[in-house]
Amino acid sequence: SDIARVRNFSIIAHIDHGKSTLADRILEYTGALSAREMHEQVLDQMDLERERGITIKLQAVRLTYPADDGQVYTLNLIDTPGHVDFTYEVSRSLAACEGALLVVDAAQGIEAQTLANVYLALENNLEIIPVINKIDLPSADPERVRGEIERVIGLDASDAVLASAKAGIGVHEILEQIVSKIPAPTGDLQRPLKALIFDSHYDAYKGAIVYVRVVDGVIAPGVRMRMMATGAEYEVVEVGVFRPRMTAVDELRAGDVGYVAAAIKTVRDTRVGDTITNADYPASEPLPGYRRMNPMVFCGLYPVDSSDYPLLREALLRLELNDAALRYEPETSSALGFGFRCGFLGLLHMEIIQERLEREYGLTLITTAPSVVYHVYLTNHSMVEIDNPSLLPESNQIERIEEPYVKASIMTPKDFVGNVMELCQEKRGAFIDMQYLDETRVTLLYELPLTEIVYDFFDRLKSGTKGYASFDYELIGYRPSQLVKLDILLNGDVVDALSFIVHRDKAYQRGKLLCEKLKDLIPQQMFEVPIQAAIGNKVIARETIRAMRKNVLAKCYGGDITRKRKLLEKQKEGKKRMKQVGNVEVPQEAFMAVLKID
Ligand code: GTP
């Protein structure tokens, strides 16, 4: 295709503002499969994505659009994931575009996630086309939202398209603006090949498929390609475009978006953000912005039934083929037996993997409380990274501990500012700034320890703002903190899977609350079970689970047999997620209890 008639764009929107619905309309209008059909037909294995109503994986679709100027244009729509866990993927897919539609709900207005993505788009010098969606809603206030876009983002919104993706209003105008406002790609066919990898997926027949935006040069089957960050080389087997099905073409040229297959064994070998060049005629510099993706949150995954360990290993191996960000390695816990320490981009990523393991592989798992990665500086001047609290060295060997910090921006209606500030304070946040978006809404900027966000921040923020706040964060580095390891002892034995790292000032309170919580969660046993919280050798809290009476059923509701059966069934169900720790039976909730003790 002629580069002058190519337009590469993506859609930026806050969750639920209508990105998928609009993409559907655009696909329908240009005669491609609808996005929902695509989900069903192409991505049916990712039903989780649809259920949770969030976009996890990027997609790229090539569309053909005959514009009002009489020319036929090739439009590449590159989809972006809509969650903070995947910010880096968003930034790479935006780097593959020249423009973006900014979809804002006409009733809700701008949200934190929208802003974060707009800034990413501006950093990538994209032309932004504002679209005010859902104008059909009775509560829609497009003029207020138009003003907000101008004031908050500083974009000219006088031409903003007033649209209803649901009712199909505004689609033609959106397509016309894409053609007239977004610049054609610039690229040089004569220069050495440079192609940006912005996503990948695993195909059982073709191996890892890389999604690329060609910036300079040409890529075609037979080319020996080199990944510039890793140095790995492969011979290109196939190149193609998504229509939305994978369709092979002869070559991809500067300005094009498409895929490359090269018998690559796993997506791990295809790094999002890396640059592909031609090994025989290489570019001297890679494209800017490549960053290795490091997992931020770790937890242990253990099969409830230890004979499922090989199945869990097999399942992780398969998921890893398709998920470059997932890390895992074998781990043993004296409490839980054989399992894996797994690393994730964030909490959502963690939940998705856990759910997939359970649903797609029929596993029943115990997950331990998530932990961030601590930098532990030792008295012998070395530094170790600790992602498993039970492995923290003895305190006399530790010079200091540093923990990851994030900069968080929280948007909230002004009535809830007090609640949000209180929450951030309690989470050891440092207030940075507060800005009024308009008369009713405020953005708060805080610096917070990442671990405090991992621990129930989302839930607390939601309940403190009746669901109205939105939230975004980015990592800003490591800072020293007064941190200690808190151990939990059941029946006198340390349960390694329950250890956690906590700020010294909170250790006593957290230890006490956790003991109380565990007392409620762990069922009575035939004997008395002491629960203790300790820092080193020093016990700071204690509770006792009293021994069970001889026969629970005997005192239960006289002789009603159905009640008894129900009780027995309930106990059986509860059993599924019980883990025998020493001689105490501990339910799954106990291992996560540390997350919900504030
Ligand atoms: P994620 O996939 O989670 O990022 O959400 P999304 O932004 O793609 O939102 P989606 O398209 O799934 O739409 C969210 C909800 O808004 C759905 O219930 C849609 O039916 C509804 N919706 C989308 N566009 C419109 C519109 O123009 N008018 C009205 N009334 N509802 C709309």
Automatic annotation (TrEMBL):
Question: Topologically, how does it sit relative to the membrane?
Answer: Peripheral membrane protein
Question: Domain Tr-type G: where?
Answer: 4-186
Concerning SUPFAM superfamilies, the annotation shows: EF-G C-terminal domain-like, P-loop containing nucleoside triphosphate hydrolases, Translation proteins
Keyword line:
Cell membrane, Elongation factor, GTP-binding, Hydrolase, Membrane, Nucleotide-binding, Protein biosynthesis
- Entry-linked InterPro entries: EF-4, EFG_III/V, EFG_V-like, EFTu-like_2, G_TR_CS, LepA_C_sf, LepA_CTD, LepA_IV
The family database entries (Pfam families) matched by this protein are listed as:
EFG_C, GTP_EFTU, GTP_EFTU_D2, LepA_C
Q: In which domain of life is the source organism classified?
A: Bacteria
E.C. no:
3.6.5.n1
GO-annotated biological processes: positive regulation of translation
Q: Name one GO molecular function term.
A: GTPase activity
Which Gene Ontology cellular-component terms appear in the entry? plasma membrane
- List residues binding GTP: 16-21, 133-136
Compartments where located: Cell membrane
Which reaction is the catalytic activity of this chain? Answer: GTP + H2O = GDP + phosphate + H(+)
Q: Where are the transmembrane segments?
A: none
Q: What does this protein do?
A: Required for accurate and efficient protein synthesis under certain stress conditions. May act as a fidelity factor of the translation reaction, by catalyzing a one-codon backward translocation of tRNAs on improperly translocated ribosomes. Back-translocation proceeds from a post-translocation (POST) complex to a pre-translocation (PRE) complex, thus giving elongation factor G a second chance to translocate the tRNAs correctly. Binds to ribosomes in a GTP-dependent manner.
Give the matching NCBIfam families: lepA (TIGR01393), small_GTP (TIGR00231)
The entry assigns this protein to a family as follows: Belongs to the GTP-binding elongation factor family. LepA subfamily.
Q: Can you say what this protein is called?
A: Elongation factor 4
- Show the taxonomic lineage: Bacteria, Bacillati, Bacillota, Bacilli, Bacillales
